[in-house]
Amino acid sequence: MEMDAHPPASQATAVQRDPAIDFVRFICLLLVVAAHCMMVSPVLHKDGTVTTLNVLMEQSWFTPVAWGLMIVPLFFVLGGVTGLQSWRRLKAHGGTGFDFAQLRLLRLVRPAMAVLAVMWGGLWVALLLGVHPQVIQLMTAGAAMPLWFLAAYLTAQLSIPLMARLHERVPLVTFAVLVAEIITVDSLRGAVPVLAFANMIFVWCAVQQLGFLMADGFFEKRSRSWLLGAVVSSNLLLGLVTGVAVYPGNMVVNLNPPNFCLLLLGISQAATLQLLHKGIWWIADLRWVQVVIAVAGRRSMTVYLWHLPLLVGMSGLLLLTDVPKPLAGTAEWWWARIPVFFAVLVLLIPVVWLFGRLEVRPTAASHARGPSRTAVVTAAVVVLVPVADAAFNGLTLALLGGGAACFALSVLLLGRVPTPVLTRPTQEGAEMRGGRWHTLPAPDLRANLET
């Protein structure tokens, strides 16, 4: 089946953001916050130590629910849609793959740098005030869990210029090769367990390619029966591979490192999104919904990174009070999840107001020019090294501080957002400023920073 070539530069720059995409991503973010509120259940013991129970994972009903509500693949589908559109806009304006990498790194690393630094400082203060080291380690590991997603998402986003080139030439072949690589890794992971982490790249890049296909209208051109067939067949295949014990039935277990099951979920979710697109678009086009998304959606990475540290910190402080603490898993505990969820949302308001600007501001330093290619590559390595260390060996307080320092160094290396000069001043979208032809809009570059 042939794919249409990607839009020419003049059309790529005119592509409007789909409000349905932003709305779905916002709803997914709320679901992630709600799910984590239903997982954290710490208990303080007389010796000062704390134990926790992941309540959701202990519930027999959660396995089929997780099948339907595992929305991580959908995040990568949506990231593929907006990422491809952003890359094409930047490319049409004379930007390079290194410019794109710098923009993506700045957008994702700066808010992460802030949360790591604040967590490291806060936990050190708690340690000096006499909090048990075991509690500090537990809070460090628990609050920083979202960082694995940052690493996976950042890796997929940095691959967009390369994967977009392959997509433009042989879209379905590119997708098929990624699927083959996923299955190969899954087949060998039993003999070489560490090989499973290769699917952190193959699975999420494949799911991201679904977003590329969606951005180019592949799903839009399919009939409703075709889309329904894709949903049914992907779920039937998922049921088959989990039913014969090739993969676990719990999608949370399949998540990290990811496997073929997450790709099947991504196919099902992409097709479902297209089936429901008109209804979602109608809701997303409501004025008050647009206002909420405009405020919170542009700061989605800040919300994602901060919600779990706030939840863990709030839960820890409540252990020191006389507030009634129902036993985990009881009816009272489940009812208490509602105020806990809204309490986290309230705590997020000042945090997003204070730190959200790191996500939307276009510049990081005052360099006259953008960084060199070597600086961009070095910045990416500096970010991924501590994240990989945490993935393989677990996150400690020392690594938390080291990670914050590495992220800060990365931001310094990246400098300010580049303003590439056109070699052909007549190219569409260029304008004269200060005697030179510039191609990125001034003064606000947020269109190029959006994920």
**What portion of residues is helical?**
55-70%
Structural class: mainly alpha
Lateral strand order in the biggest sheet? 1-2
- Shape by Cα distribution: globular
In N-to-C order, the SSE pattern is HHEEHHHHHHHHHHHHHHHHHEEH
**Rg, nearest Å:** 22 Å
Largest sheet: 2 strands, antiparallel
Detail the poorly predicted runs.
1-14, 362-368, 418-451
Strand content: under 5%
- Total number of helices: 20
- How far apart the termini lie comes to 29 Å
- Rounded average pLDDT: 83
Strand segment count: 4
Describe the structure.
The structure is a single chain. The protein is mainly alpha-helical and 451 residues long. It is built from 20 helices and four strands. The strands form two sheets. It has a two-stranded antiparallel sheet. A hairpin with a 5-residue loop joins strand 1 and strand 2. Helix 4 packs across helix 12 and helix 10 (199-215) runs parallel beside helix 12 (260-275). It is globular and about 60 Å long.
Which characteristics define this entry?
451 residues, mainly alpha, 20 helices, 3% strand, disordered N terminus
Concise structural overview:
The chain has 20 helices and four strands. With 451 residues, the chain is mostly helical. The strands form two sheets. A two-stranded antiparallel sheet has the order 1-2.
Set out the fold topology:
Layout: H1 9-12, H2 19-37, E1 42-44, E2 50-52, H3 62-69, H4 72-92, H5 97-128, H6 133-143, H7 147-158, H8 160-169, H9 171-188, H10 199-215, H11 224-243, H12 260-275, H13 277-284, H14 287-296, H15 300-319, H16 331-355, H17 357-360, H18 373-393, H19 397-414, E3 431-433, E4 436-438, H20 446-449
Antiparallel strand pairs: 1-2, 3-4
Helix pairs in contact: 2-4, 2-13, 2-14, 2-15, 4-10, 4-12, 5-6, 5-7, 5-15, 5-18, 5-19, 7-10, 8-9, 9-10, 10-12, 11-12, 15-16, 18-19
